[in-house]
Amino acid sequence: MTPSIFARQPLALRKTAIVLIAALILMWFDSKNSEWFNPVRSTSHAAMQPIYELSLLPSYAKHWAGGSLQSKEALRRENMQLKSQLIHAQAKLQQQDYILAQNARLQGILSTTKPEQFDLNLAQVIGTDTNLLRQIVVLNKGVQDGVQVGQTVIDEDGILGQIICLSQYQSPTIDY
To answer: Is the pLDDT of residue 54 over 80?
Structure first.
């Protein structure tokens, strides 16, 4: 009896060939009716899951390290941006505090004056005095129009002066 070619090969090669042939037969049966192998397939997937997880550990570690370094830099940038926004917000808050204080001061001034002093009287300049020490302007409104000594006279540029004396129909003012 002559030894066959298969018998002369090493044992490991024979085992590999047998396993490959069995795998091919099982794949052929699986392609014909896959319902038979569902329990085996799910059990083998469950058994291989730890190996899959271990093989992904280097990728997870790289992703985690890159993400933590990147997130630290992103946090630094966000922190700097938020500090800048805080400085701007504090500056605006100081401006608003100043405006509120000024508003309160102006409200105080308004509340100390008599309401009738804010009645608007439109008047025309009808004359001027050429006194070198002070400038006097004469308006066409007087006591009959409700003008009083001490009232402020304004024009389109701001405060013009103050009523210093009155007559029935005229009121001279001093120009500052």
So the answer is: yes
Spatial contact of 136 and 172, defined as CB atoms under 8 Å apart: yes
Mean per-residue pLDDT, 74-97: 92
Assign 146 to helix, strand or coil: coil
> Cα dihedral sign for 163, 165, 168, 170?
negative
Do residues 121 and 141 make contact, with C-beta atoms less than 8 angstroms apart? yes
Does a structural domain hold residue 69? no
Query: Phi/psi of residue 128, each to 5°?
Result: -135, 155
138 to each of 57, 62, 123, 149, 156, how far by Cα in Å? 96, 89, 10, 13, 17
Question: Which residue, of 44, 59, 74, is where some domain finishes?
Answer: 59
Q: How far apart are CA 113 and CA 152, in angstroms?
A: 12
Statement: the pTM of the whole predicted model exceeds 0.85? no
What is the domain range of residue 122?
A: 115-175
Mean pLDDT of the chain: 80
Domain assignment present for 74: no
Count of structural domains, the chain: 2
d(CA 162, CA 150): 6
Q: With beta carbons less than 8 A apart as the criterion, state whether 171 and 138 touch.
A: yes
